[in-house]
Amino acid sequence: MGEDFEEYISITSRIGGKSPTFPNFRPDCSQLESGRAFWVIGEDAFGKVAHVQALRVYDLTTTDLAEHLESLKACYADPARHAGPDSSCVCRAPTARNIRGDVAYHGDLWLRDDFRGKGLARTLAGVAFGLAWAKWSSDFIYALVPPWLIQKGIADQYGYVHREAHGSVLSLPDRDVEDDDWLIWLTQRELSQLIKRTATETIERELS
Length: 208
Description:
The protein has a single domain, classed as Gcn5-related N-acetyltransferase (GNAT) (Aminopeptidase), CATH 3.40.630. The chain contains seven helices and seven strands; from the N terminus they run H-E-E-H-H-E-E-H-E-H-H-E-E-H. It is globular, with a radius of gyration of 17 Å.
């Protein structure tokens, strides 16, 4: 776990089979303030990277998530300077207009092929949720995921209980990004309940 995103990018850029990290977590594009963003990297028994994910929290007290995404400020500290020509984002998820306050973003989630299908999604998301709760207790936590993650039920395994299509129709031509992602999210109360439930289940398993 760390907060140095120069280090994070140096690691993730060398991972075969992983898509490039989005601008949200790139220090050359985003302002990743100390205490407001962190990453988690998991290694296998041989010290080889098997998993990565990153989180950051945005202050959306004077705006909402839909406006934040559409302005491209979710990706870039200064869209006018950092965004390439013809870059755009459209958010058609209705609830995004009501997501405000301190809002945590959970992204860049990657798991190596040989670890997939082993029921790790819930555990890995639980690590991120627990750390985000301890650090920020944000009003919301959200992720943007491709339709296949919804169709395969992986978003359910993560623990997210809300979802809406077309949360981020993102075009970054200079980065070869053309995505139409679902918005998935939890409220502060739901995240707290999820963490408590997971902790209780863990204790019960250990005692059984």
